[in-house]
């Protein structure tokens, strides 16, 4: 008989200014939830025209960007460029070093671009790997349905009800499930044993382990247990939508200074020096400026 995980805490992500004109609800990477291995940060971002995240560096982590509305353009110093649209994801491994820009696409209807960005730690033996990308288009994401089709699960990464995701998306093992539940629906979602897991709520209200939670909350679960139980009351006026995120904890120290995530203070100092001197992975930064960053 499976045992459901219990809730450790649930808290609302407060919206704040971030980047250049962007609005962000940050839940992982705050005093409420710091270094929940392998997760470093989760931002629920809203960026309109004239805002964005112009040229900035990374080292030592992976970023997973999931676009919910609109489009976001990307460009880096290695010549990589592209656009993700609503329902698409980009998995970026910064590795030894990358400088890139992420800017909102032009909206025909004037609506802002909305999405989630998750920062995931890299195992120490991969901290200095070569940067890489993997775009995952909405059309590639398989869908699982359960409880008489009252529950729909986009299996971005991992497995749900016999449906497997696309493989080899990130180096650090992570599951991401985008779940929509109708009023009266129930879900029992198994998760890998010993992995850290949380839910971020996007819309409506749902009960996790018996606790009713509204939109824009992070629900953190205990490691013990086989999975999580969710229910949406029949009386709810709208569907509930949330993202289940689980990852394999890394047994290593985390030393973070802004966009540099390493294992020692010395490695962080070296990252700052390498960035400033255009060396050891940042050679291509010399004289480079993104085209899309000039929109600011």
UniProtKB/TrEMBL annotation:
<feature type="domain" description="Pirin N-terminal">
    <location>
        <begin position="22"/>
        <end position="120"/>
    </location>
</feature>
<feature type="binding site">
    <location>
        <position position="56"/>
    </location>
    <ligand>
        <name>Fe cation</name>
    </ligand>
</feature>
<comment type="similarity">
    <text>Belongs to the pirin family.</text>
</comment>
<dbReference type="Pfam" id="PF05726">
    <property type="entry name" value="Pirin_C"/>
</dbReference>
<dbReference type="InterPro" id="IPR012093">
    <property type="entry name" value="Pirin"/>
</dbReference>
<feature type="domain" description="Pirin C-terminal">
    <location>
        <begin position="177"/>
        <end position="280"/>
    </location>
</feature>
<feature type="binding site">
    <location>
        <position position="102"/>
    </location>
    <ligand>
        <name>Fe cation</name>
    </ligand>
</feature>
<dbReference type="InterPro" id="IPR003829">
    <property type="entry name" value="Pirin_N_dom"/>
</dbReference>
<keyword id="KW-0408">Iron</keyword>
<feature type="binding site">
    <location>
        <position position="100"/>
    </location>
    <ligand>
        <name>Fe cation</name>
    </ligand>
</feature>
<dbReference type="InterPro" id="IPR008778">
    <property type="entry name" value="Pirin_C_dom"/>
</dbReference>
<dbReference type="InterPro" id="IPR014710">
    <property type="entry name" value="RmlC-like_jellyroll"/>
</dbReference>
<keyword id="KW-0479">Metal-binding</keyword>
<dbReference type="Pfam" id="PF02678">
    <property type="entry name" value="Pirin"/>
</dbReference>
<feature type="binding site">
    <location>
        <position position="58"/>
    </location>
    <ligand>
        <name>Fe cation</name>
    </ligand>
</feature>
<dbReference type="GO" id="GO:0046872">
    <property type="term" value="F:metal ion binding"/>
</dbReference>
<dbReference type="InterPro" id="IPR011051">
    <property type="entry name" value="RmlC_Cupin_sf"/>
</dbReference>
<protein>
    <recommendedName>
        <fullName>RmlC-like cupin</fullName>
    </recommendedName>
</protein>
